[in-house]
Write a structure and sequence with these properties.
- By secondary structure, the protein is mainly β.
- The chain has one domain (3-307): TolB, C-terminal domain (Neuraminidase), CATH 2.120.10.
- It has two helices and 24 strands.
- The protein has helices at residues 3-11, 297-307; strands spanning 25-32, 38-45, 48-55, 62-63, 71-76, 82-88, 97-103, 109-111, 119-124, 130-134, 141-145, 153-154, 162-167, 173-179, 184-190, 196-199, 207-211, 217-224, 234-241, 246-249, 257-262, 268-273, 280-285, 292-293.
- It is globular.
- Residues 1-23 have low confidence and may be disordered.
C-alpha cells in the first residue's frame, strides 16, 4: 500500500483507497490460502477493483470477480473453500459497502449484508464466524456475525472508530485498530467484546494487524516519517511479539511497505511494496530477511495485461 493509499485509509476511517490509477494495475492486501498453495488479493485495474487469486508461483491466475463495482480484500475461510470480501454498492452512495462470500471452485456469490451501510474489512474466525467493521450504529465499530450473515452484533462502541479485526488462532480473542485522539492503536479483547486492553507496542498509527499462526506475534504496518521527502510518508511492516512485548521492524526501508499477512506455517510474511515503482506483492522471512518480489516481471506483465483486458 502506497503512502497515498494510507492517507486515504486514515481520512476515510479504514475505508479502502478510492483513487484510480488510469491505465495502471496495483496489488493490495495479499491473503495466502490455508494450505499455503495460493494467494488472493485485490487487483486495481485502472478504475476497477477486482478480487483475484493465483498460485504462489504466479500460475493459475484468475479473477474471482469481474464487474463494475469495487471488490476489496478477499480473505479465506478456514477450509479454503471460499473467500469473504466487501463490495461497493452499485452506483448508490459512495462509502456504502456490503459483505459477500464467493465459493472459489464455482464462483457462486452470497451477499451476507445489505448495502445501506459501510460493512467492511471482513475476516473469518477459526470457528467460521465472521468479524467485520460497520457504521450501522452511527460510527465505525467491530461487529461479529454467523458465517451465513445472521445474528450480527457489535463488539465495540468506540465513539471514534474501531476497524480491521483479526481473530487469534485460539478463537477466543481478537485484535483490532482503535482510533484515539490522536492516533491509531492496537486493542486486544475477548471475542465477545468483554475484557479489553490497548497493546503498548511503543508507537502509534498502526494498521492492519494479523496474528501469527502460533498466536504469539502480530504483524502490522504504519508510517515512518523522515525517510522520504517531507511530502511523503514511508510505510513500514513491523512485528510485535505479544508475550515478550518486543517490537521489531521488518521493513528494510527500500520502499513503502504495507498490508502484511503471515504465511500459514508462520515462516514468512507477505506484504505490498512500491520499492520497484508500483505496488506489487512481496514476501520476506518472519524476521524481515530476504525481501523479494513474489513474482517475476513476466508474471506481473501477464497479470497486468489480463487486468486491462489484453491477451
Amino acid at each position: 500500500m502506497s503512502s497515498r493509499a494510507l492517507i486515504g485509509l486514515v481520512a476515510l476511517l479504514a475505508q479502502p483507497p478510492l483513487e484510480a490509477v488510469p491505465g495502471g494495475s496495483r496489488f493490495h492486501r495479499p491473503a495466502p490460502s490455508p494450505d499455503g498453495q495460493r494467494i488472493a488479493f485485490t487487483l486495481e485495474c485502472g478504475s476497477r477493483h477486482e478480487a483475484a487469486l493465483a498460485n504462489l508461483d504466479g500460475t493459475g491466475f484468475r479473477f474471482l470477480t469481474r464487474n463494475d463495482v469495487e471488490d476489496w480484500y478477499p480473505q479465506w475461510s478456514p477450509d479454503g473453500a471460499r473467500v469473504v470480501l466487501f463490495r461497493g454498492a452499485e452506483k448508490v452512495g459512495r462509502g456504502r459497502y456490503r459483505i459477500v462470500t464467493i465459493e472459489v471452485a464455482t464462483g457462486k456469490e452470497t451477499p451476507l449484508t445489505g448495502s445501506g451501510f459501510y460493512d467492511g474489512d471482513p475476516a473469518y474466525a477459526p470457528d467460521r464466524h465472521i468479524v467485520f467493521n460497520s457504521d450501522r450504529a452511527g460510527n465505525h465499530d467491530v461487529w461479529i456475525m454467523e458465517a451465513d450473515g445472521t445474528h450480527p452484533r457489535p463488539l465495540t462502541d468506540n465513539p471514534l472508530s474501531d476497524f480491521s479485526p483479526s481473530v487469534h488462532p485460539d478463537g477466543g480473542r481478537l485484535v483490532c485498530v482503535r482510533q484515539e485522539a490522536p492516533g491509531y492503536v492496537l486493542e486486544l479483547m475477548d471475542l465477545e467484546g468483554g475484557q479489553r486492553a490497548v497493546l503498548d507496542v511503543g508507537r502509534r498509527d498502526n494498521f492492519k494487524p494479523d496474528w501469527s499462526p502460533d498466536g504469539r506475534s502480530l504483524v502490522f504496518f504504519g508510517p515512518t516519517p523522515g525517510e522520504k521527502p517531507e511530502t511523503e510518508t514511508s510505510l513500514a511492516v513491523l512485528r510485535f511479539d505479544v508475550e515478550e512485548a518486543r517490537l521489531t521492524r521488518l521493513s528494510d526501508g527500500a520502499g513503502s511497505d504495507g498490508d502484511p499477512a503471515w504465511s500459514p506455517d508462520g515462516s514468512e510474511v507477505f506484504f505490498v511494496s512500491d520499492r520497484r515503482g508500483r505496488d506489487e506483492l512481496f514476501v520476506m522471512g518472519r524476521d524481515g530477511t530476504d525481501p523479494r518480489s513474489l513474482w517475476s516481471e513476466d508474471t506481473i506483465e501477464r497479470i497486468s495485461k489480463a487486468c486491462s483486458g489484453q491477451r
